[in-house]
């Protein structure tokens, strides 16, 4: 059984049930419509779900992940020192913009495993960069001067000493 | 093709931004603080992010489902108590008599081997389990006697609370001359065979080539559990003739305890030399520590090196289906057991061969790296002792303690009456009692304790500290230790290299910057749970300055009268914190204060400690008088103490009671009969001054005719110390508490400071 997903641009993607099941909103929509139970007369191309916030390029990328994880459970919770499989890290890559698109889409589509992977991707991109490097990477203006802050207790002020050269 | 507008990290919805930031590690978070106001304010105002940051700073993990703000406030209080060494609670707890020498401290469980059948403590056949109360999650304390139906007594044990596993090395029958060992796998909750273990008993035959084995050779054991791996090092007594002849020897066996398969057996280097016509294994293992489930560190005394080895994984379950497939001592009769794969060799500082040699070596790191949050799901009820807070009035705490003692009395003296099973089922409350915070898996300190055969008045003991992260970097990223290929400086003696069997060899200078070496050993001797996470605990004795005149009068400077000495002497307990973030912080704070860096570890007098000492002085005098007045009590205890020591403990008794100060007025210690069950005393926490933080800076250990060169070592630590009157006979640390073992009139007490 399969279902058609329609991207923001109107492009149609035909996906099988195990793949689509990875996408939370699709699963909810489909179950809500009793789609998989067969009550709604569903042929392969008559029923589609429009995902108005996801572009074709991002949707196709997300479907690659869903296809990979159609038979296995992705990691869905963890902390910063957890290890993702190599495939995941190669998949998410180091393109910050693309990771952010994936992140937003994963949030919108309710895919917790992919959301976590995107966060891990961002953490990897930021890893080892100093504040100036992060500004350059994100293309934002450094608008913060830490001299302005005076009333910080020590635990919160850890960033003052943590990067201090020793 | 992309038509969407540019997305920015900072344009994400706040909840998504927080979720992203919560996955970052500490350096990235610190950098984000200084990027822009939005990130900075998000990091400062979000409870989740504050909590995550604090966890990372203290190298802790948590799997609690409590609300984040609750966790944050508890974590703040907990870390602040540790930092100032001001306990949230302080109490003493009696230990049952007849405890053997085996014990474990694991995930707030203090477990001692107990000899119920034989009062002399010769055969351990039960465990006294003390679940210590927690100040972080206000969990009450419990104690119970653990017995394993069907086992005959055991020589040693270890446990893994998160797996609900107790592993016992069964006592061999005296008639059995061959070294065949059985390790029983039981649950901590019920004492029954562990349901996850395919076979409840692991068997191993140590090699024994004695021509006529007539009596059983004596062995001691080192045990550690890491996830589904269980390692046991069988150590024969070294003084025996058969050991010297090489007929028996050390064997390290690593099992997968779930399947029962042997993952590896290690007996040292292959027989490359012979002694007395028999082949002898070179550099047999004397100690080991798991680094993770796939990696183990072993060390011997012959070459003076720490070997990091990979444990081969079991090829397939079918080939090892028969549980307890012990290694066969005779080669050729069966497929040889798999070997450890040596990967990295860290050489210890070179000794002058004519002057010094390594006598013994012991590596420790706690908790085991596989140990997750410790959950007591179906533990026996035991005897509860309520953890009254410091605000509790003296009367309630006294009544609570007497009732606890009333319960404890029969439970301890007639332990077989209460079967653990029934008690376990009686527990109705599904109490969430797992540890709130536990050290992150990688946050471990390895201590290597060496005792040396060296000239007198030089260096009898050495302790080396190194972080697991350093060891794992050497294993996984060896390029960080290898010299740059530039031919300019050729100092091969100090550089890392690969040897002929492609083992990465790190001479001492190549890793000394990441290690710390001291010529002091852990005090007091005899107990090993002195490491937890990044922390290490030790102690030293001193006589408070204002008592020194008195001490000299009493002739202490010359021949010591031990009873008087005990009254005058105090113990300085030191907690060494190797957490790199904490070291950075203290260094930064000291630089900010623009003071000179504090002298490394000087014997400074803490401000405010004077009050305590004056009290102590009084108490010592009173104590000596009382000791002279009262009859000796506690002599009915069947202990191994000498008479003199029992008397001497009286002097310390008073000092210790005074240390719990407030209660000593309401219930004078004279009223308590030390021979009876000593009640649990929940005193209000002793008002102390916050500990002064000192930085242990990189230091040099002089050669002293023992080492080839002076030893530099670069790993820094923060030392905090507190002073307690009297002597300690044991000192332990875990994630939440400092535990002091005190002997009072032959009876052992725990004094626990909960942080």
From TrEMBL, chain A:
GO terms for biological process: protein ubiquitination; ubiquitin-dependent protein catabolic process. Gene3D superfamilies: Potassium Channel Kv1.1, Chain A. Keywords: Ubl conjugation pathway. The keyword ATP-binding does not apply. Pathway: Protein modification; protein ubiquitination. Residues 112-156 form the SKP1 component dimerisation domain. It comes from the Eukaryota. Pfam families: Skp1, Skp1_POZ. Residues 44-70 form the SKP1 component POZ domain. Belongs to the SKP1 family. Component of the SCF (SKP1-CUL1-F-box protein) E3 ubiquitin ligase complexes. Essential component of the SCF (SKP1-CUL1-F-box protein) E3 ubiquitin ligase complexes, which mediate the ubiquitination and subsequent proteasomal degradation of target proteins. This is E3 ubiquitin ligase complex SCF subunit. It comes from Calocera viscosa (strain TUFC12733).
TrEMBL record, chain B:
Residues 6-54 form the F-box domain. Residues 629-665 have a biased composition (Acidic residues). CDD domains: F-box_SF. Residues 319-333, 401-419 have a biased composition (Low complexity). It comes from Calocera viscosa (strain TUFC12733). SUPFAM superfamilies: F-box domain. This is F-box domain-containing protein. Gene3D superfamilies: 1.20.1280.50. Residues 319-338, 401-436, 629-682 are annotated as: Disordered. InterPro entries: F-box-like_dom_sf, F-box_dom.
